[in-house]
Amino acid sequence: MIIYHYQVLYFPRESLKPHSRTESSSKAAFLDHCETLWMRSAAAWRDAGLTGLLNEIANSSAEVPKWLSVSSGCVLALLQRISSFHGSLFPHLTLSSEDMIAEFSQVLKWSDCAVRAFAWHPHTDKFAVALLDDSIKIYNPKSATAPTLKHRLQRSVAAVQWKPLCASALAVACQNCLLVWHVDPCSLSTRPSSGCAQVLSHPGHSPVTSIAWSPSGSFLVSASPMDTNMMVWDVAAESCVPLQRVGGGGVTFLSWSPDGSHVLASTPAALFRVWETRMWTCERWPCLKGRCQSGCWSPDGSRLLFTVQGETVIYALTFTDTPGIPSNTKGPKAAAVVADLSETTFNTPGGDIVVGGEIQSLAWDPRGERLAVLLKGDPQARDRPAMIAVFKTRTSPIFELLPCGFVQGEPGTEPRLMQFHPNFQHGALLTVCWSNGRITHVPFYFLSAGMARHGLGGSPPQPRPEERPADYINQTLYTELTT
Amino acid sequence: MFSVEQSCWFIRKVICWRAAASVAWAVLLLPPSIAVFVIISRVSLLHPIQWISECVSLLTSATAIFSFILLCGVVLIVGFLNLEYYTVIPSIACSKIALLGQLLHPRQFVSSLVHCILGVIVAWCCAVTIGGRYQTLGYPCTQADGSPQLCLNEYQVILLLAGAFVGYCHSVLGVIHNMNYVSFHTVQQYKYLRFKGSLPLVVKCSAIQALYSVRNYLVVYFFLGYVPRTWICKTLNLQLNSSLHPLDTIAGLLDFSLLYHLWISGTFLLFTWYITLLLFRIFVTEVYSFPVQSSFTEDVHQCLPKVLTGQQPAILKFLALHDLALLSQHSPSRRSEVFSLSQPGGHPHNWNAISQECLSLLADLTQRLVAHHDTVATNGRAKSLSTGSDKKSLSSESSVTSGTEDVMTPRPSVLIKTPASVFLRSSVGSPLTVPFTPDLDSPFSSPALRRLAGPVEQCSPWHGTVQSPHIMRRGPKLWSTSTDSQANSLPSSPAPVPSPTPAASKPSLLAQFLQNRKEQVLQSDCCPEPELLDQIRLLIDSLPEASSQALFADTQSHIWALEGLSYLVKASFSEDQFGVVQTTLPSILSSMLVLQEAVDRHFKLPHASSKPVRSTSSMEDSSYKTLRFALRATLKTAIYRITTTFGEHLNAVQMSAEHQKRLQQFLEYKE
């Protein structure tokens, strides 16, 4: 008898207060203090840089010579012109940080989502959940304490990820910086101090929308749509190497292949890059329609599935060069369409449902046998909800992708975020975060071809009926199963 | 200067060529930087056409070509100095007085002098390029009595002296900031991309550094400017033009154009030198791929196992370890050569040589950490290790298990009883146990262990003894477990402090003198003048951060050894056909665990900061300051890499109970 206790968590949206503070909001609450122009200029320079200084000078025309205020006003106007021109080249630069994260996040409707990021530990059963109130909670089935991580700089968490080959390190992509928490797994403390967090920041590299650890645990890459640099961090030394490629105007999404040989880096423009991690060179992949929205790698790192904004298909790229041998043979010349997810109407007892359309994110289970696709749906139409479609996949001898089923939540809820458990013994376990703040786990029991061949871990569990669109949510708090 | 290294094939065939290539590139980059300098120095926004045409005519003139040739010579000499002074192990001054000793070292004095002269030459080139009032040293003038004479052009003097000053500052700051330290990047990039990535930083650094240097120079010139001026007047028989303002006054120095030109010249000077340095660093640290084995006997000394274990300059060892770390990670075909057996005989010579060397490196570091910890624990503060060198504790000898002795290789009779064979290495000349005057050139590992690590002595009976539970039972304590071959076994009692030989390292008389004075002062604790003593103590007390840095100065090699070992062990799970790795697995695991314990203990010391300091963006390569954090992370990852790969199979590996327990923590992801 095998019983799994994967706790179903519930974070009601109402119980979480989002922070509505901005940098300058507290300023108005205090009385205006008479400072000399020098002091104010210095403060403005410190707070807001050159534009702040110029603004300050231009605004205090009574105290400065006329030529100075006029010239600083001119320079300010010129700077604004330049930045608006730059913004017209790359429209995403005009967004605010929050909007930018919401736009480029893998989470559907990130801004009003109670659970903003989720990450399974790559080796154990613990996971981290980033919530709307900018706190992160860590749940471990073997421990009664659930530490809550809070930090002054931990705002607008866009992504979290555990460091591979490490028990404690958790990287957090925040609005202004990267945080790497070191949460001692044996500690009983429920509020680790902010001294446990390393702060990694680089001028101009904010907001961070995506992070990825190398599977060997040695590097962390981070991306910001505002910065054309992709940062490769040596976390222990807190040093970074910027890898700059100007085209695209930023980097939005990163995904490191499981074998560590490639990194997918998409940009806000219709262009994405695939970096080779040995010498850090990249291939450019221009898309026709929109930017690359999401992507995922097959377990052996040889195949990349990705989706493009504005299209309803999944593309595949195959990388044949074996890692380690520097070969001049470039990858494929063009991506192949492997699945078409155009809208289809299904007749259900509750009425017709239209499924399909644009894709928010992709997730491939660590054995390469199930592919989950989060479809955006249409928020205006009631019969076109966001939904997770699941496909059976096989990578060898040829790539196959077969429809398998759908995962649906309680009535009125929609999936926002999903991730596969990295080492579920008996198949695949998909964790889904719903719009009502619930986190549930959807198991897929199957006899893995790879498992049967290797014969590790004793007798494999009996195969169960494949997948049920029936909602597991209405069941008990624990998903349990007996064999 | 070259005599010691001349013998090494690697220096001759690789490093020298790399240095030459870097200088060649620096020379090729000179014309564009001169052009940019000319354009910026003659900038006049009001007459753009005249400005451009002047620049073009100047760049094609004979003066420009002559100064280009001069600058080429300067770059050549700077490149040579880079090659001569570079080091892969930074010399970290543990106290202020040690830093002073470094600054006053004759070798450093030569370098400063050369940099001063080079600075003057570059400044002269700048002066003739800028032209105008800076063009010549003397000019005809009429004195008050109406007679024509040659007068001194103070503008050129101030520029030339600025060059000398900036050059001197560059050389002094180079010592303080370990500018000659060459670090290896963890992120591999092609040379061009790396250069392109660092170029903005070089421009920024040279501009900022020039700004500070010029500011300091102006202060110096304001107070002492008359000294060189009168001296030049006297020697060259020039007159001072009394009708002009002298420049060492406030009014004279507040000349905006003069300040601008000083700053631009300083920036140009530093830029050319930094570019040369940057190119040198990029070229020297490029990955060199050593063959793992060769079928030709004349190439055997160039193969990875031989290179790793041989006596050699540190750069060769570092590049070999770097190559090992990369091959273990990326190259299955080269890994299979490592796991292969020798053709007649069937011995895994390659793997043995490589693993022994890596393990001895780790044991060396463990030993160093234990010794440091013990000194700190006994004294309450980190005294320089050298002061307590003579108290070789006999207690440690008594605790030696007899088993370790009887298998030891013959040694000089005095040392044969000491269990800490690693200390032999440090007494042979490990620079790091001598933080006072760390040696730049001596190889950092001992011949004593290398003899053991050589493939000839690598016979399987050794492994048999190591693995037998007999020995394991004899060493239940964490510090006394045999790490690999018995020679590496560590003492269980407070370790004797290594006997350093300051005289054997850099024969700096001054440093020697300072060292002696320091010891005298430290011994005369009953001195009746406490205030004075405190003052002196402030000078000679070791800075805690620095002593920790010095302890880990060469840790990049240990990081690679850990990475190489763990990746090889991980790959051996599926690739090792003959099971050669299995025999060494217990010793690899236990030496990693022992090191882990030592590192943990080190980070619990009150002095050791637990977080890396923020590095400022400058040309100074401060990566040596964070090496210990990188080591800590790498060590943990390396152990996890092995435990994740082998999983429950590790329970079958024979190890002491303590290590088993520790390993279980890793298997449960609780570390």
From TrEMBL, chain A:
GO CC list: nuclear pore
- Name the SMART domains for this protein: WD40
Give the signal peptide as a residue range, or say none if absent. none
- By its UniProt entry, which InterPro entries does this protein fall under? Aladin, Beta-prop_Aladin, WD40/YVTN_repeat-like_dom_sf, WD40_repeat_dom_sf, WD40_rpt
Pfam families reported in the protein's UniProt record: Beta-prop_Aladin (PF25460)
Q: Which GO terms describe its biological process?
A: nucleocytoplasmic transport
Residues annotated as domain Aladin seven-bladed propeller:
96-445
Source taxon at top rank: Eukaryota
Q: What name does this protein carry?
A: Achalasia, adrenocortical insufficiency, alacrimia
Question: What is the organism of origin for this protein?
Answer: Myripristis murdjan (pinecone soldierfish)
Origin organism lineage: Eukaryota, Metazoa, Chordata, Craniata, Vertebrata
From TrEMBL, chain B:
The entry's keywords: Membrane, mRNA transport, Nuclear pore complex, Nucleus, Protein transport, Translocation, Transmembrane, Transmembrane helix, Transport
Q: Which GO terms describe its molecular function?
A: protein-macromolecule adaptor activity
Q: Which superkingdom, per the lineage?
A: Eukaryota
Q: How does it sit in the membrane?
A: Multi-pass membrane protein
The Gene Ontology biological process annotation of the record reads: mRNA transport; nuclear pore organization; protein transport
| Biased amino acid composition, Low complexity | 395-407
Chief localisation class: nucleus
> Entry's Pfam families?
Ndc1_Nup (PF09531)
Transport: present as a keyword of the record? yes
Q: Give the residue ranges for region: Disordered.
A: 381-407, 461-505
Q: Where in the cell is it found?
A: Nucleus membrane; Nucleus, Nuclear pore complex
- List GO terms (cellular component aspect): nuclear membrane; nuclear pore transmembrane ring
Asked if the keyword Transmembrane helix belongs to this entry, the reply reads yes
Per the UniProt record, which residue ranges are transmembrane?
Answer: 20-43, 55-79, 116-135, 155-176, 262-284
Can you tell me which family this protein belongs to?
Answer: Belongs to the NDC1 family.
Report the protein's function: Component of the nuclear pore complex (NPC), which plays a key role in de novo assembly and insertion of NPC in the nuclear envelope. Required for NPC and nuclear envelope assembly, possibly by forming a link between the nuclear envelope membrane and soluble nucleoporins, thereby anchoring the NPC in the membrane.
Listed name of the protein: Nucleoporin NDC1
Q: Which organism is it from?
A: Myripristis murdjan
